[in-house]
Amino acid sequence: MDVPLWLWSAVIGLILAMLAVDLFAHRRAHVIGVREAAAWSAVWVAIGVGFGVGIWQVYGSELGQQYFAGYLIEKSLAVDNVFVWAIIFTYFAVPRELQHRVLFLGVLGALVLRGAFIAAGAAAIDAFSAILYVFAAFLLWTGVQMIRTRDAHIDPSRSRVVRWFRRAVPMTDTFHGQRFLVRRHGALLATPLLLVLVLVEVTDVIFAVDSIPAIFAVTSEPFLVFTANAFALLGLRAMYFLLADLMHRFVYLKLGLALVLVWVGVKMALQVDVYKIPTAVSLTVIALLIGGAVAASLWRTRGQERTGLPAPEDPPFRVATAEEDAEVEPAFRRRRVPSRV
């Protein structure tokens, strides 16, 4: 696939522009409702699908199918990531109006991390093609482990990252609006929102370890790997507010994702020296596994209403009172330039 430098630059510029639009549209802390989240989700999906249609028309059906297979894998894994974020926000009792800023920075960090992982993966495959067997074995192991632990969920109270952060970083025990850092009596302190952001970024790394080998199983083109990841991640913030309260209804999603990882692991192992499964077949199998898991989940839980996760009885952090807010100062102040008389 011959991708000129101007196209790389244009795509990266488009992604940055969309991030800027997303930031500008949600620059004020407010509760994002279902209708707003659904509208934004539709916009992001339309952009991702539209880009895939463009790839199909310009570069042909084979590369177009590879993009859509990768996009579907990344979008599906992103839903599982959304549910992990919902658990984190609920455990730490993060006010809903503050969640979107953490999510925006989390998506931005995920894009940077994925870019680094993709570059490293492409270089490793180019230098040592047998590493595909390692990727395949990892995907198979991950898929089997996901099947075995499909009913288990992350427990932030037992997180080593949380314990390390609270031990190593001086911090407040109250949220102070959208601030990540504040000063109290001259001392620089982290707020709980920074801890939540760090934990979100760590989960992004964990999900990237699974998703990058998975997408390399359906396409070896770095441009398609990067764009499928990027366009799947761009709508992640809106998807969170759309799906977080429906977590209890996707009972078979993790099983479907596990089977997808097993499938692409088998595909990757076979394509090295045995048989290359056609992309159209692979795309069909992935779509059927994900679509079947979602349809079966919604059918089994039909009639259930939207509901958030149960809030902890004694959350580790709380929102600062007006008096407590008055005691802190911005972490970084602009230096005042003395006026000339």
Automatic annotation (TrEMBL):
It is found in: Membrane. Keywords: Membrane, Transmembrane, Transmembrane helix. InterPro entries: Integral_membrane_TerC (IPR005496), Integral_membrane_TerC_rswitch (IPR022369). The chain crosses the membrane at residues 6-25, 37-56, 76-95, 102-124, 130-148, 193-217, 223-243, 250-271, 277-299. It is a multi-pass membrane protein. The keyword Transmembrane helix applies. GO terms for cellular component: membrane. It comes from the Bacteria. Its main location: membrane. Belongs to the TerC family. This is Tellurite resistance protein TerC. The lineage of its organism: Bacteria, Bacillati, Actinomycetota, Actinomycetes, Micrococcales.
